[in-house]
Amino acid sequence: MLPDDVCELVEEGLGEVIQTTDSLGGGCIAHATRLGTDAGTYFLKWSREEAARTFTAEAAGLRALREAGSAIRIPEPLIVVDGGDGKAGILLLEWIERSVTSKRFWEAFGHDLADLHRHSAERYGFHRSNYIGRLPQENEWEANWPEFFWTRRIEPQVRRAKQTGIWQNAWEAPLKRIGDQLDAYLPMHPEASVVHGDLWAGNFIPASDGHAALIDPATYFGHRETDLAMTRLFGGFPMDFYAAYQEAWPLEDEWEVRFEIYNLYHLINHLNHFGAGYASSIQRVLKRF
């Protein structure tokens, strides 16, 4: 059962009566619930903790992805109420029915993601800062990509790791070498594509229309390869996905090197979220450079 104040927020916003509530697994920082109402089915996130403060940013990211006009399904945010400090916050989305994956699904996903990435801006960043997991993600606009990636992605995560004492002094020199040579590794002005920002296997749904649906974004405008790099961090997607993406919009040479650098951001973020279990992976990337 949902708490009374959460039900009131939903019913006041929808003008519909909640009939069924089914708790869903997989919610890492907020409660996730399937709602049945007298007019349809919806997906609800709710929380009274700090997670509730992420809902407005998540809704903004979903809206930006929807503006891309891709065949990828992006759930529409219907109600957003910030909370925290004991006050309930909610994010109500349209319900997307799951299907199964197949070779055809993965091919469509690759093509559709390339199409989504063609929606672009003139600079790198987003109109507001948001969150990567439960941690803040800075999105102030920058005119060149290496500057944005280093100052808005790597440096804030490293600062946080140092503040909590989990950063290792031995990492300082190799990280500095990467930073000093970043312009040689990353393109200065790639297309500023709209990206999901946290694209791993837990953040997409195979929808019933045969296309992928994206959820839980950390959206901004950046180099499209950051999304593809993230898909490979925890095992990767099937090769049909990557072949279809390459067919639709081929990657530039040496993308494997850039993927390593882009995923360093996510590895340090996971270090900050989950602890020293990610230290060896960070060490491996730093050692390579």
What is the strand and helix layout of this fold?
Layout: H1 4-14, E1 18-23, E2 31-37, E3 40-47, H2 55-66, E4 77-81, E5 89-94, H3 103-117, E6 120-121, E7 130-132, E8 135-137, H4 145-163, H5 172-180, H6 182-185, E9 192-195, E10 204-206, E11 212-214, E12 220-222, H7 225-231, H8 239-248, H9 255-274, H10 279-288
Antiparallel strand pairs: 1-2, 2-3, 3-5, 4-5, 6-9, 7-8, 9-12, 10-11
Dominant shape: globular
Proportion in helices: 40-55%
Compute the CA-based radius of gyration: 19 Å
Number of helices: 10
Q: What is the N-to-C order of secondary-structure elements (H for helix, E for strand)?
A: HEEEHEEHEEEHHHEEEEHHHH
The SS-based structural class is alpha+beta
Spatial order of the strands forming the largest sheet: 1-2-3-5-4
**Please, what is the average pLDDT?**
95
CATH topology of the largest domain: Aminoglycoside 3'-phosphotransferase, Chain: A, domain 2
CATH class of the largest domain: Alpha Beta
